[in-house]
Amino acid sequence: MRKLLTLTGALVALALPAAAQESFPVTITVDAAKTTGPLKPVWRFFGADEPNYATMKDGQKLLGHLGELKPKQVYFRAHNLLNTGDGTAAFKWGSTNAYTEDKDGKPVYNWMITDMIIDSYLDRGVRPYLQIGFMPEALSSAPKDMPYRHSWRPGFRYELIEGGWNYPPNDYKKWEELVYQWTKHNIEKYGRDEVLTWYFEVWNEPNGPSYWKGTPEEFYKTHDYAIAGVKRALPEARVGGPDVAGSGGTFMDGFLKHVVSGTNYATGQTGTPTDFLAFHAKGSPKFVDGHVQMGMWNHLKVVDNGFKKIAAVPELKNAPIVIGESDPEGCAACPGKANGYRNGTMYSSYTAASFARIWELSERHKVNLEGVLTWAFTFEDQPWFAGYRQLATNGIDLPVLNVFRMYAKLGPDAIAASSTGQVPLDEMIEKVTGKNDVGVMATRDGTKIAVLVWHYNDNDLSGPEAKINIKLNGLGKAKTRTVTQYLVDPQTANAYTTWQKMGSPQSPDQDQYKVLEAASVMQPVALPALSVTKGAATLDLTLVRQGVTLLIIE
User: Fold this and answer.
1) Which residues on adjacent β-strands are paired with residue 306?
2) CA 514 → CA 22, 350, 510, 527, distances in Å?
3) Beta partners for 287?
């Protein structure tokens, strides 16, 4: 239960019961008069392996929540959009039957299911980050005895997702024509101006054996022909890639060289159109001494290396970058002890702490970071809070989604902010620190100030709460400022805790469902107004471990 905390200034903030350990002090300083640069909304990208969930009840509900964050500026990336099949969703699988061939080997195009998926996005304010893949069965060069569809399920080895779907085309001209016809159809259905806002990229993680069974050169060729198909239909289309696993190693080096100075397999010209570059970055949590210990250091190190690699290519150093999958670990469909953090506030505090460092790394390397894509959506009709990496379970939002709602309230301009409790970037990159990371970001939108504060720790254990004193400067001539607080912590905006208190029912009735839905909502709380003297004010608050709060001061 919340209680009011008496403050030394003119503010009373909400606090939670003290942890068993003694609290520790943190001082945060924010200067609203000192702009440090624009803050791009890089958080507005999401994705999932399973494209067909977008047309199902819970998928559509969640897409609506994503679209509300920043209408028509949120993007969704999905695998398996060109796979052969009847459109039935399954773990790490999807299909649309977009391409088959008749008995004479002539192409048959069917856009019904791809249209349903894209319609589900657009109807809810979300736009496609359109992944061109994987290989339709009739175009696959896989051995004849190779099953086309995989039969992977949670618990199986990850590499067992292989099948005929992840092979190069047996006919590159037909592959290009497929991409051309799909792009042409999308222009006719959705309009040229709409399709110009989309991102187009080819395949997923072609540098690893799970998603690509060809050579690097065969991927460059597959990529070139697909991009040629997009550009033939829409010359101004935004194209890029290659969405490699990690920073890409020598594969990425070869790809960057190819798109800059190699001979284009489809056109014979030098290089391949590249409007953005994409790589993936993941953390590495593990289960130690009875609890989850996150591995943010690995996540950030990959981002650091990926930025370095792109910045080192003169022709591409200013190209927009999308971290096409950016997550605490690798497999969204894999539950287990080490992934148990996903349901609660470890995932939400990790998100706040990691995004802040990714923004910081982009500034350090002076790269053009455009997007950080969270590879998490929902798994339809699965057990409640099963431990999958998702944003909602059975239509009920998880705490992590509320951090993105906080991001949506940030202003366009970053302002100077520092915290005595924030772990330095280089230390976060090097190792599991085990330290309490009480960090801050702040923005301005006209006279409105937003202050985002998180209390993160690599270890999913209870710990001391942070007693935070926030010193605000540059507030202008107004004598008072209103303050609104948004909060996510173990007891607030957290349906998982409420579900546990219910006894963890696997079939909540309609009344319980309404309670869970209400518990997931992050409610604004109006705090007492700040008293401003010479443009300055202070406030005190308490933030428990793995809590995240946003203060809107206006």
Assistant:
1) none
2) 37, 28, 6, 27
3) 292
Q: How far apart are CA 78 and CA 94, in angstroms?
A: 9
Tens digit of pLDDT for each residue in 280-289? 999 999 999 9
DSSP string, 31-74: EEEEEEEE---TT-EEEES-GGGGGSHHHHHHHHHHHHHSTT-E
Q: What is the pLDDT of residue 341?
A: 93
Strand positions, DSSP E, 253-304: 276-282, 286-288, 291-293
Output the pTM of the full model: 0.95
Q: What share of the chain is helix, strand, coil (3-state, %, to 5)?
A: 30, 30, 40
Length of the chain: 554
Domains with residue ranges and CATH for the chain: 3-38+412-553 (2.60.40.1500), 45-336+366-407 (3.20.20.80)
**Burial readout 343-360 (b: 16 or more C-beta within 10 A, e: otherwise):** bbbbbbbbbbbbbbbbbe
For residue 324, the surrounding DSSP H or E stretch is strand 320-327
Task: Tell me which DSSP letter residue 464 carries.
Answer: P
Torsion sign across C-alpha atoms 241, 245, 246, 250: negative
Pairing mode of beta strands 126-132, 238-244: unpaired
Pairing of strands 320-327, 276-282: parallel
User: Based on the number of CB atoms within 10 Å of its own CB, is 498 exposed (0-12), middle (13-18) or buried (19 or more)?
Assistant: middle
Phi, psi of 484, rounded to the nearest 5 degrees: -120, 130
Contact between 421 and 436 under an 8 Å Cβ cutoff? The reply is yes
Please name the residue that has the structure tokens 């003694």: 22
Residues of the chain above pLDDT 70, percent: 96
